[in-house]
Every structure is written in C-alpha cells, then in structure tokens.
Amino acid sequence: MICAYRIYSAVFMRFASRVQSRNVLRACHSNSAQNVQEFDALTEKYEELKKENESLIDKYKRALAETENMRKRSERLVEEAKTFAIQGFCKDLLEVADILDMALKSMEKEKMKDDSLKNLYEGINMTKSSLMKVFTKHGLVQIAPEGRKFDPNFHEAVYEVPVDQAEHPPGHVSHVLNVGYCLHTRPLRPAKVGVVSTK
Question: Fewest CB atoms within 10 Å of the CB: 106, 117, 122, 136?
Fold first, then answer.
C-alpha cells in the first residue's frame, strides 16, 4: 500500500509540474504585451533616473571644486593679510628713514672737528643701520635702481636726462632722487628717479 501511494504521489507530482509549467507559459503569453509595456516604462524611468543621477554627481563635483577654490582663496587672503598687515606702519617709518638720510647727507664727517658732532653723526648712522636691519627682517627692501631699466611699477620718473649727458643707455635710470621701498614683492613707495631720454 505504501508502494502504491508512492507511485501515485510521483505520478501526481509529474502531472502537477506539467500543469504548472503550462499555466506559467499561458500566463507569460497572455501578459507579454503588458510585460513589454511595463519593461519599456521601467527602462524609460531608469534612463531618467540615470540622467538625474549624473546631473547630481556633476553638481556635487562642481560644488566640491568651488568649495576647494574658496578655501584656497581664503587661505591666500589670510596669508596676504598677515604679510601686508604692517604696510601702513612701514609707510610711516619711511619718513623717519628719509629724515635720517637727509641728516647724514647734511653732515660731512670729515669736516667735523668737534668730537660731539662726530658722535652725533655716528649715532645717527647707527640708528639708520638698525632701522634698515628691522626693515629687512620684516621684508621691507630698499629700491635703489640707478643704472637699471626704468620700470613704472617700482620707479616714478621725475625728469628726463638727455642722452648725450647720461652715463646709462636710453630708458634706464640715470639718477635716484629718493629711494623707493618694496614690502615683500609689493611696491610700497616708488623710487623717484631721473630717466635717460629715449628720444
């Protein structure tokens, strides 16, 4: 009896499997038009989502690049602010340097007979030297361009020297009336110069 039951079970399972396969095939054939429409709709939706995703990725990359550029720009501005924060103070000290130069030029050490005048001269000279060391320490550099080509970024032409009276070629600085200064790479005060005429 158990044997007959097993045979009956096996036959029933085969039959059920075939019926199920046929039902699946029928369902597939009957729904194929609907499935094609659903597939097309899903494909279209996929393409839309893909384009939207690419657009979002592009916007993200641009925002990231813009943020990085802003960070770099901010860092550069902070560095420039640190570097050039003393610019106003340096301009004020240039007048002191000019006064010390005029004082030294007005006194001729060789003609001084009095020791107190010689000591005064030495004191002014030492003060000027100390001031120049401090300038150099903080990136303030003197521009004394005699003999160099005239550059309007660093020189201010006060007058022209005729070519036949000049020791330098045309377009070059012949005389320096007042030295200029640069703070790091930025001109703080142009040198006032006489330029050899190019005419």
Answer: 106
Annotate 15-78 with DSSP letters as a single string: HHHHHHHHHHHHHHHHHHHHHHHHHHHHHHHHHHHHHHHHHHHHHHHHHHHHHHHHHHHHHHHH
Q: How many other β-carbons are positioned within 10 Å of the β-carbon of residue 138?
A: 15
SS3 assignment, position 185 = coil
State the pTM of this model: 0.58
**The domain 139-199: what is its CATH number?**
2.30.22.10
- pLDDT tens-place string over residues 49-88: 889 999 999 999 999 999 999 999 999 999 888 877 888 8
Domain ranges of the chain: 1-85, 86-138, 139-199
Phi, psi of 19 (to 5 degrees): -65, -40
- How far is it, in rounded angstroms, from Cα 167 to Cα 148? 12
* Alpha carbons 112 and 14: distance in angstroms, whole number: 132
Q: Give per-residue pLDDT as tens, 24-39.
A: 556 555 556 677 788 8
Do residues 103 and 124 touch, judged by C-beta distance below 8 A? yes
Are 189 and 142 within 8 A, CB to CB? Answer: no
Non-local (6+) Cβ contacts of 171 within 8 A are 149, 150, 195, 196, 198
Compute how many other C-beta atoms are within 10 angstroms of the C-beta atom of residue 174: 23
